[in-house]
Design a protein that fits this description.
It is built from five helices and twelve strands. It is α/β, with parallel strands linked by helices. The protein has one domain: Class I glutamine amidotransferase (GATase) domain (Rossmann fold, 3-Layer(aba) Sandwich), CATH 3.40.50. The strands form two sheets. A nine-stranded mixed beta sheet has the order 2-1-3-4-12-11-10-7-8. The longest helix is centred in the first third of the chain and has 10 residues. The two termini are 12 Å apart.
């Protein structure tokens, strides 16, 4: 199995290593035609306005939307912002893959980044460490959205169909449960 990792900017290398540990071949996606070689996609964390600019500049919007219509997609941190329906920043025109709204940097600036235990709902591990770096907050959950993880009773992991988004960085903590659940189950 080959899973793409959007490699325009951000933490794509750590996701690639996590996929390899699961026996999945990671493919760095830098051009729209690269999507033809993979069976799923990861939107990594990074700087969401920069990622959106690069998606628009490289004519990626339509190919990403078309790919997501029939393939699994996982977004972490900035990836969640890209997948949302609405974001609190006019510089970002999200892809609308999940019926959620998001607020950028809602858990604080870079200096307030933290790691804490989150509560999982559908995984064998009920609590795992999660790293939040200038993390987005899910401010609205729409129709068909399932909550997969919470932190202090706030949703930080959601899923609908074959699309999953996380406010945090499981790849930084070496937790592969979300990748495994989406791409291998």
């Amino acid at each position: 199995m080959k899973i793409g990792v959007l490699a325009l900017q951000g933490d794509f290398e750590k996701h690639s290593l996590l996929l390899e540990q699961l026996g999945i071949t990671p493919v760095r996606i830098r051009y729209p035609h690269d999507l033809d070689t993979v069976e799923g996609l990861v939107f990594p964390g990074g700087e969401s306005t920069t990622l959106m600019h690069l998606i628009e500049q490289n004519a990626f919007r339509t190919p990403l939307s078309e790919f997501a219509a029939s393939h699994p997609v996982l977004g972490t941190c900035a990836g969640l912002i890209l997948m949302a329906t609405s974001v609190d920043d006019s510089r970002i025109n999200p892809l609308g893959l999940l019926d959620i709204d998001a607020r950028r940097n809602a858990y604080g600036r870079q200096v307030f980044s933290f790691t804490d235990q989150i509560q999982l709902t559908h995984f064998p591990d009920q609590r795992v460490s999660a790293t939040f770096i200038r993390a987005p907050k899910i401010t609205r959950i729409g129709t068909g959205i399932e909550i997969l993880a919470t932190w202090k009773n706030e949703p930080v992991g959601v899923m609908s169909g074959n699309h999953m988004a996380l406010s945090f960085h499981p790849e930084l903590d070496g937790y592969s449960g979300f990748h495994k659940y989406l791409f291998l189950s």
